[in-house]
Amino acid sequence: MQWEHLTAPKFAKAVRETEVCLFPMGVLEKHGDHLPVGQDFLTVHRIACLAAEKEPAVVFPPWYFGQIYEARAYPGNLSIRPTMLLELIEAVFDEIGRNGFRKIILVNGHGGNFALNRFLAQCTLWREKPYSVYTQVDWRTPDRQKEWDAICDTDVHMHACECETSMSLVLHPELVDTDAIPEEGTRALERLAHVPHNFSGVSWYANFPEHYAGDAKAASAEKGKKFLELHVDSLVDFIRAVKADRVVPALEKEFFKRAENPTQ
Known about the structure:
CATH architecture: 3-Layer(aba) Sandwich
Strand content: 5-15%
CATH topology: Rossmann fold
Number of domains: 1
Strand order of the largest sheet: 2-1-3-4
Helix content: 40-55%
Number of helices: 9
Shape: globular
Largest sheet: 4 strands, parallel
Radius of gyration: 20 Å
């Protein structure tokens, strides 16, 4: 169920029946020269909708504000000041909670959001909320990883690659400029290899200055259907687990009770 498609009475009914809101998080950034800048939010929102058809939940409208400062050097990027971004997301979460949802699932569609999403979950311990935030940090079980690897013909899958392009050929083929796919794929340049075990703001740029990582020539719609099925099924499993969970809300309640008088 898509939030924006529901009438007010149907929305209220969906909240009562599911109590779960899926919050797909994408960004606007360059994806090589062949995929749209909206690739991440277009794809993750569709994955969330497909999962919600299998396990009922309400899907928040397309969201494209996230951590994407590393793409500010390219056309089409949209970045928000870090403090404003955090305040904006918290405000939206609070509105989701005010509408009656007790569980918010962050569905990530962008690699640069992983640390942000963990931090957003941790931020819920600053002030008690009427909702709990869950984020799926690893959607690939060992079996699903084997299936994924068996589909791939390339070994670098990071950005605008065989995998992303294949899914795009299924979800929005009209937006894929196959003629613009480079003849050769790209690998990390490792320009910061002299500083081992380091992460800097320019780490991604140091490795992939053209914002393309992988080889999209191997992409196909046939592969895309298989990739999508693995994504969707994994999210369905996660939604079901979150719906059944009673421990996170209980522990949060216990935590805040203790936080009021930590020395008692």
